[in-house]
């Protein structure tokens, strides 16, 4: 049990660093824009580009893992991740910065897929929901501590210092990955290496609905979240010295969101989610009105943070359950679905947010996100209906 705790801690640390590197742009958006003399909306597209590279590359890389040792794959990915963040810190031009972010995105998506596979194989069945929730919570911990810390470093020492910190932490973590995780773990030897066999999982209607649900869920949030710093500073008029605290508060809410996600997965799972998305529609829809009253606007954003990751554990365990029973050759690929389609959602949400912000102003971001939350609600209801139909058919057989 002690060994499992250590291995779990390492997996969560990897998740934290991957999240730290991905989310830090949100906290330093103004500083990066000023450094390269671009406007904030243009800098915001770094989030979109990262997410697209992440989403497009992850299934390609994961399908080539095959029978390779997962530890060696993870060490290679984290080595490239370390170098990529160092290049970001040193980037002399906006173009090189963008390229380095693409490289980091490519290995980040595959990295989270591999640690999810580690978690699935290493965790006892009764601990699986707990570990999945905590691996996802690594991203929220990055929001709680990483993004505010990066914002503070950016304010005091320049935005590059945040990426130097990520580089040092990544290098140290490589050593602990090597000595803590099993070196002989692979995908099941009975699993097919053929890419076509792995991709067969996409034929399942439940998987199709699940990945679209994942995508639109985070898209609705990121219409607003991508531009959280300018919302804090210009719409709510929060003092620059308090911006870090505001991000910390939002990060704690997103951490709580991931923990509640695990609780939801252990109980009613996806059946609970329609109520969540109904609430989210109202939270986003009323945001323009509430931004006119600072404390109400801030409270509304905190509630948005609370809903941000509630889908993670229920949908991850749902997808892995289907893969484990019916598509075992696709376990690593299936482990990546949440990351892949969340990042497609991030790309959609951040790009849409940029367009809404440029054309209609920051106060219009909330209603834009509410439309995507409504689409997510419909997808959730469709998935729950499909799951009930499949269960009924199995009972009849």
Distance between the termini: 40 Å
H/I helix tally = 17
Q: Work out the helicity level.
A: over 70%
CATH class equals: Mainly Alpha
Number of domains: 1
Could you report the average pLDDT, rounded to the nearest whole number? 84
- Poorly predicted segments: none
In CATH, the architecture is Up-down Bundle
Instruction: Kindly state the number of beta strands.
Output: 0
Structural class of the helices, strands and pairings? mainly alpha
Strand-residue fraction?
Answer: under 5%
* Radius of gyration computed on alpha carbons: 20 Å
| The CATH superfamily title | MFS general substrate transporter like domains
CATH topological fold name: Growth Hormone, Chain: A
Task: List the helices and strands in order.
Answer: HHHHHHHHHHHHHHHHH
GO cellular component, one term: plasma membrane
Organism: Tetragenococcus koreensis
Protein name: Major facilitator superfamily transporter
Domain Major facilitator superfamily (MFS) profile: 7-388
């Amino acid at each position: 049990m002690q060994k499992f705790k250590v291995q779990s801690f390492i997996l969560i640390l990897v998740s934290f660093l991957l999240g730290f590197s991905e989310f830090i742009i949100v906290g330093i958006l103004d500083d990066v824009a000023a450094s390269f003399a671009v406007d904030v909306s243009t800098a915001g597209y770094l989030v979109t580009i990262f997410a697209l590279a992440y989403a497009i590359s992850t299934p390609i890389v994961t399908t080539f893992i095959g029978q390779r040792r997962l530890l060696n794959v993870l060490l290679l990915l984290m080595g490239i991740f370390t170098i990529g963040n160092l290049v970001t810190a040193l980037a002399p031009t906006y173009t090189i910065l963008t390229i380095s972010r693409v490289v980091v995105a490519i290995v980040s998506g595959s990295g989270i897929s591999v640690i999810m596979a580690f978690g699935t194989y290493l965790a006892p069945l009764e601990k699986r929901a707990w570990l999945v929730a905590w691996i996802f919570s690594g991203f929220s911990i990055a929001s709680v501590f990483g993004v505010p810390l990066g914002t503070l470093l950016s304010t005091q020492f320049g935005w590059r210092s945040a990426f130097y910190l990520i580089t040092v932490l990544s290098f140290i973590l490589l050593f602990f990955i090597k000595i803590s995780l099993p070196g002989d773990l692979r995908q099941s030897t009975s699993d097919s290496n053929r890419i076509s066999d792995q991709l067969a999982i996409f034929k399942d209607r439940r998987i199709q609905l699940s990945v679209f649900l994942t995508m639109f869920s985070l898209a609705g949030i990121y219409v607003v979240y991508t531009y959280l710093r300018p919302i804090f500073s210009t719409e709510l008029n929060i003092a620059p010295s308090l911006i870090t605290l505001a991000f910390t508060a939002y990060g704690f809410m997103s951490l709580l969101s991931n923990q509640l996600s695990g609780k939801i997965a252990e109980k009613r799972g996806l059946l609970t989610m329609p109520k969540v998305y109904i609430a989210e529609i109202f939270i986003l829809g009323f945001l323009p009105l509430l931004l006119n009253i600072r404390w109400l606007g801030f409270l509304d954003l905190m509630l948005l943070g609370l809903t941000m990751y509630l889908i993670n554990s229920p949908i991850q365990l749902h997808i892995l359950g289907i893969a484990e029973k019916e598509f075992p050759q696709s376990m690593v690929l299936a482990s990546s679905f949440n990351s892949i389609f969340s990042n497609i959602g991030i790309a959609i949400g951040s790009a849409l947010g940029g367009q809404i912000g440029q054309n209609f102003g920051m106060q219009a971001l909330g209603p834009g996100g509410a439309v995507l939350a409504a689409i997510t609600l419909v997808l959730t209801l469709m998935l729950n209906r499909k799951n009930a139909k499949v269960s009924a058919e199995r009972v009849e057989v």
